[in-house]
TrEMBL record:
Principal cellular location given in the protein's record: membrane
PANTHER family, per the entry: LOW-DENSITY LIPOPROTEIN RECEPTOR-RELATED
Gene: Ldlrad1
Species, as recorded: Motacilla alba
Alphabetic keyword roster: Disulfide bond, Membrane, Repeat, Transmembrane, Transmembrane helix
Organism phylogeny: Eukaryota, Metazoa, Chordata, Craniata, Vertebrata
One cellular component term from this protein's GO annotations in UniProt: endomembrane system
SUPFAM superfamilies attached to this UniProt entry: LDL receptor-like module
Membrane topology summary: Single-pass membrane protein
Name of the featured protein: LRAD1 protein
InterPro entries to which the protein is assigned, alphabetical: LDL_receptor-like_sf, LDLR, LDLR_class-A_CS, LDLRAD1_C, LDrepeatLR_classA_rpt
Length: 134
């Protein structure tokens, strides 16, 4: 079993050295992050996403779409339909401290926007709460 916890409490892939934990989205990215390159081996990367262990994959609501498990609940609309952020199967916690909860106007976000976008003079939430309340 190569499941491990990468930085920021994200799902990871354990290298052969049994110490290095590579974030899931770094697996099969054509860059060797493990000393022996096991995160880029053909048996792991040959038929994405089917060749990946299940813990590295999150399937979007569209069954043909998937993202790496560490992209689930990261605040970004990686699936394109927000199923990786708001769908019940994703089981994401509410917006964290660095985020503001609202209905975003930009496709990039789902149910939260980064707080750094608050009071920047640009509407990011439908009700303008990012400019007046955040």
């Amino acid at each position: 079993n190569r499941l491990c916890t990468a930085p920021n409490n994200r799902t990871g892939f354990l290298c052969d050295d049994r110490v290095t934990c590579v974030p899931a989205s770094w697996v099969c990215d054509r860059v060797s992050n493990c000393r022996n390159g096991e995160d880029e081996q053909e048996q792991l990367c040959g038929d994405l996403p089917h060749s990946l262990p299940g813990y590295l994959v999150f399937y979007c609501s569209n069954p043909r779409s998937w993202v790496y498990a560490d992209q689930r609940c990261n605040g970004m609309n990686d699936c394109g339909d927000c199923s990786d952020e708001t769908w019940s199967v994703a089981a994401c916690p509410p917006c964290g401290q660095e985020w503001w909860s609202c209905s975003p106007v930009h496709f990039q976000f789902c149910s939260c926007i980064p707080r750094r976008l608050c009071r920047d003079g640009i509407q990011h939430c439908l009700g303008w709460s990012d400019e007046f309340l955040c």
